Structure of L,D-TPase catalytic domain-containing protein:
Amino acid sequence: MSDLDPDLKSNIESDKHVVEADEDNTYNDVENDIYNDATNNIDNIVYDDENHDDSQYDIDVYINPEERRSRLRPVFKNKKRVMTALGIILGVFLIAYIVRAQTFNTRFFPNTYINGINASFKTPDEVKELIRQEIEVYRLEIKSRENEATSVSGKELGVRFNFDSSLNEMLKKQNPMSWALHYINSDEYDVDRVVDLDTNKFTDTVYGLSFMDEASFKESEDAKISEYKSGSGYSIIPEYYGTALDKSKALNAISSSVKRLDTELDLNEVEGIYTDPVVKKDDEVLMSRAEVMNKYTKTVINYPRGVALNGDTISGWLGVNENGVVVINSDAVNDYVKQLAGELDTVGKPKKVITSYGKTINVNSKGYGWKINQPAEAQAIKEYVIRGQDISREPVYSSRAASLGETDYGNTYVEINLSAQHLHYYKDGQLILESDLVSGNLAKGHRTPPGIFSISYKQRNAILRGPGYAAPVSYWMPFNGGIGLHDAKWRGSFGGNIYKTSGSHGCINLPAGIAKQMFENIDKGCPVICYYMDGSEVDTVTAQAQEEKKNENNEALKKNEEAAKASQEENPKQTEKDSQAAKAEKAKQNTTQKESQKKGKTKASQTAPAQSGSDEKTGESTQEKASSKEQKSNLKESKKESKQPAEKSGSSQTKASENKETKGTKENPKAVLESPGKGSAPTLATGQSGNP
């Protein structure tokens, strides 16, 4: 420091200056240059000792003030010029902005749209003219469901310009000084009052359009399950979007479009004009319902005799309740089962019977045959339908028969001709037993009912008890309530006309041996066919035999007369004697014949004792027995001609041991049948033995 020039040192100590930054960049640059030059002047300082301490010198860069001022003077002059220029520019801009803003006192801002018309930089009158021009050529294209687009002109719609102050009022609301901002932002306005409508003309035109015609409206429909189609089941019909619309809402939508001068309007896009379907084809509940219904209608139940239940019928039973659940109509199922019973039931229906006499007759089946248990079968059907099963089965029966079909009595049955008083028992189609019988007493009103029945059970050693009688029987086989087959040991004869005046209380009386054989060969449930058949009565057979005998006698008398006449021609006297003898013989024969017929009728009408077996035996005359034998012979000849069963000789009857006990028979010697009164069959009771 001591080596420095004294003047320099003095200046440094007295004029120490720290250069501070100026806000002006140019000024700072000049200051930096001065500072750098001053610093360079002390680069050659020589220290007088080696162990000097720089910290003892408080030296800042020295800058000559005069030099500093001279060098900064041009900088300040340039800065003033710049600021002056900027001020001038800004002033011009403000003046131009304000002048431009005055334009928007009468014109709309840029990017301004009124009812879809570009109103930028336009006066209200210019906008009105544009609207007026647009109205003149304006057309609206309206789209609706299931119709082609309809184009209507503004003139047809009664469109007219509204010359009110709406646009001017809109212009007054503008702030002219903000006009520059509208180059960035756009403004859109809908002014309904700019376009006006002739209400009557507009309404008439719109309501006259085809899509507004209520006669052509089609209501929307939800997706739904189709009708059942045989073989393919159910399917889902997609929803339908109908053409029916709210005319008032459609009118308003069209009015709004016209006032905005829209060129297109799709009514389907306007909310609330159409009522859309609620349930669509992909609705889960709907699809689930269709699945259940298809499962139900896949059910197939094959019944006997070719009767089948399938989806064609089941589909008519299905419905949906208020909770949307698929249900089976029970009444419809019951009706079907009733119809099914009408086809398959045979109880109570006439059955064709080919009699042992060769004649086919119809016999009503009173309590015998097939009968469906309708409530049980209806329940079973519903269960099978719910499972959707394919099955072959027979109905639930409350009554069964031997076989299916009209002849449901099969080929094992008892045939009782109540007119002929004769019984045939067929087993597996073969005649194994036949016998005369005595049925219910016609004179006392105990007529044995005709019909087809079945053996209810069979029992040994029963007592038949009724008013005034109690008769023990060894073989009891009831088939119609208290009416049944049994032995009648108190009778000495069977068949003929006995039943008319001396018959039973309705039961079928059989010889003891026949009853035993029947008991040993018949089973519970075996059909019993009882019938009356014209032409097979015993009286008819007897009359036919007598007529034949009469014809033979007449033929013999004729031959005698012819012989007598020839003899008279040869010997008149002898001929006269012979003629008288022939006449006497003829008179005698006629008298004998008449007496025989009269006697036969008298015997047939006589009443045999009803209470005593011994009286019944003595009451029959020799002539009645002979007549009975002759009737049997005639009937057997008739059977041989009309029907040829297996061997009908004595060997055709089964000779079973009298001591043989049939398996499953009941032993109850105290059991009896008791009749409640006249005309009723005997019923089971207990009591002592007595006469029938």
